[in-house]
Amino acid sequence: MSRVHVEVRHYLARMLGSQDLEGHWEREIELSSGCTVRDVLSQLAEEERGFSDVIYDGERLRRGILLLINGKLYHWAKAAEVELRDGDRLSLSPMIGGG
Amino acid sequence: MGKLLWLDLSSSQIDTEEIAEDVLHDYIGGYGLGARLLYDRIPACADPLGPDSILGFLTGPLTGTTALIGSRYVVVGKSPKTGTWGDANSGGYFGPELKFAGYDGILVRGISPDPVYLLIEDDNAELRDASDLWGMRLMELERALRKRHGERVRVCSIGPAGEQVSLLAAVMNDYHRAAGRSGLGALMGSKRLKAIVVRGEKEVPVADAEGLRRLRAKYLREYDEDAYALFRDEGTCGITAESAYSGDSPVKNWGGIGVRDFGDDVADKISDDSVLAYQQRKFNCYRCPLGCGGVVKLEHGPFALDQANDYQGYKPEYETLAAFGSMLLNDNLGSIIKANEICNDYGLDTISTGSTVAFAIECREQGLLSERDVDGLDLRWGNAEAIVALTRKIARREGVGELLADGIVAAATRIGEDAWEYAIEVGGEELPMHDPRFWPGTATAYILDGTPGRHTQGSEMLPPPGLGLPEHDKYEYSGKAENHRKLVNLTHVMNSAGICLFAYMTFYIQSLPDQLSAVTGWKYSLEDLYPIGERIGTLRHLFNLREGLNPLLRRIPDRMVGVPPQDEGPLEGVTVDYRTQIREYLELIGWDPKTTVPSADSLRVLGLDELVDEAANFQVPAAEGWG
């Protein structure tokens, strides 16, 4: 088994019920080896209240969400099938404005 | 600190001025210092293109230091486009180089009879004839000036658009960085100042250099990981597709809906990996660890870049991708890269130029412009060839370009009453690529800020990490004034300090007072910065009130605020109650609900006592329906 750390940030975290002002919502997910980002998000969508409404609709990330794997930016098309390893970190936050 | 160079172009006289320490402490630098200096020195109601008008190029105390990220300078003046206070900010290397020459800024008044440029080599500053440079585009110009004065000079200049006093003109530096907004390229052109060439060898004074280095190391460990990754890995092009789908980007001249009109992954064609496929290398501004910029190459096809530049240009920013992409239903990335090159090379603001093209397309669609009016161009949504051709015409003021080269307001005025429905601007400024129906707080900034229609002013769209503002639903219009006030005031300080907005969005906010303290030797806490920001914002506002301009009387396009609301998509049903937002904010900061004139108490608490009587006598028309 491997463990993946999932963090949801900013107002998305608050939409999942976090009371943290800076917005942190964290979970440790246990997975069998070879699991993908899609598998992790699917599991969370089944287990966590609100997750499918806010983050993952069952097929893809909801629009306007930044996804990082171990601090590196991935867009959904590339991220979905990335296989995760023990200790990997998945971060989900609202898309940034500006620029 | 605090040494300014004064240039009077009418008399060719060059002087220096030392700024008093208390002014530097209270106004920081950048446009804060600019507002203080120009409020006192530009006569009320001066012609922005006349000899009394002053154009400033001002750094901040953090510019050219090891601070995160001290790459910026600000161009300031009375905007010939909006008639208000004007400023525009740019990165690259010009600002730091000005500091290395020993100057915190340059102020220019008067009008030169002939084209000139200013050459600064440390303590030597002189005016040079620019007759042979007049008419040159940016790439050619910078190459010529580097050949003449050495590869290590830094150049700030205007292209042909600025020379022709186009109100879409930007002030440019380092080949492609733009101080784009407020039409300040036109102001520089009106003075016949083609360029400023600077080279310096001095060390930038820092009160606690070792402390500043420690702070850099500390904050390079404490940052918002998402923002850092986005700017480092992709730059702003990384948000283009998601912004189109989420509703942040305006679509089809603000009349469309991203998921309907630019959906089914169409926006992916002009976003992130699609753009990065053209990138040859990253571009970092001065001492920037992020490097959000890039050099692109486009060698083949109808939109190949200029052969003289080895087919290379610069990576379009999000604002450019949206203005020439979703706004025009244009998914041809090559054409956007080409339009970006034209804007950079002629010295045009890409936001305003793309928006003006969108306006023209809709006027053509609605029959307000004939095929003949648009020089026979097949001007319609998504026609990449026509979009690029029109951009070139605007840059050269050729044919229909003459109608459009001063932006939407000038064009709508000439086309006629029916065109105003499609004129998406506030106060004369074409709106940026962030939709208040998605970020309602931006409506307050677009309407109320000293420079109308600006996304880089404070709002709920731009919270710095570590501020920890109380949670507030963005569509709950009441009760958000306290948050807005903090964000506005910190943004004013950030824009005055000489750091980059993306540093502000990436590094913990405590880095701002910490770095300011290390550089200046004055002790600033985060709490200290709020009244300083409010003082700066208030003075920019007073500059406009003195002109008799009430921001509440600015025309507000229906589409900007969802009148009527969209009937599908992520913004379905949204009508922005900007009046509640603004009314509560005005009440909080002590500005009159109808005239926006600050109360005597609100001025005194900011140390602006000397302006109390003057402000009470401003002739500002009242706005009805806001109280």
Summary?
The complex is a heterodimer of chains A (99) and B (627). Chain A is built from four helices and five strands; from the N terminus they run βαβααββαβ.
What does this entry look like structurally?
The complex is a heterodimer of chains A (99) and B (627). Chain A is of the alpha+beta class and 99 residues long. Chain A is built from four helices and five strands. Chain A has helices at residues 10-15, 37-47, 51-54, 76-79, and strands at residues 2-9, 24-31, 65-69, 72-74, 89-94. The mean pLDDT of chain B is 97. The longest helix of chain B is centred in the C-terminal third of the chain and has 21 residues, at 526-546. In chain B, 63% of the residues are buried. Chain B has 627 residues and is of the alpha+beta class. In chain B, helix 19 packs across helix 24 (578-589). Chain B starts with a strand and ends in an 11-residue tail after the last helix. Classes of the chains: A alpha+beta (99), B alpha+beta (627). Chains A and B meet through strand 3 of A and helix 8, helix 9 and helix 20 of B.
Quick tags:
heterodimer, A: 99 residues, alpha+beta, five-stranded mixed sheet, 30% strand, globular, B: 627 residues, six-stranded mixed sheet, 26 helices, 17 strands
Task: Write down the overall mean pLDDT of chain A.
Answer: 88
**Low-confidence blocks of residues of chain A:** none
- State the oligomer: heterodimer
What portion of residues of chain A is helical?
Answer: 25-40%
The SSE string of chain A, one letter per element, is: EHEHHEEHE
Layout of secondary structure:
The complex is a heterodimer of chains A (99) and B (627).
Chain A: E1 2-9, H1 10-15, E2 24-31, H2 37-47, H3 51-54, E3 65-69, E4 72-74, H4 76-79, E5 89-94
Parallel strand pairs in A: 1-5
Antiparallel strand pairs in A: 1-2, 3-4, 3-5
Chain B: E1 3-8, E2 13-18, H1 21-27, H2 30-41, E3 55-59, E4 73-78, E5 85-90, H3 94-100, E6 105-109, E7 116-121, E8 124-129, H4 138-149, E9 154-157, H5 160-163, E10 171-173, E11 177-179, H6 184-190, E12 193-199, H7 209-219, H8 225-233, H9 240-246, H10 258-261, H11 272-276, E13 279-283, E14 293-297, E15 312-314, H12 318-323, H13 333-346, H14 350-365, H15 384-396, H16 400-404, H17 407-415, E16 425-426, E17 429-430, H18 441-448, H19 481-497, H20 501-506, H21 511-520, H22 526-546, H23 558-561, H24 578-589, H25 600-604, H26 612-616
Parallel strand pairs in B: 1-6, 7-12
Antiparallel strand pairs in B: 1-2, 3-4, 3-6, 4-5, 7-8, 9-10, 9-12, 10-11, 13-14, 14-15, 16-17
Helix pairs in contact in B: 2-19, 2-22, 7-21, 13-15, 19-22, 19-24
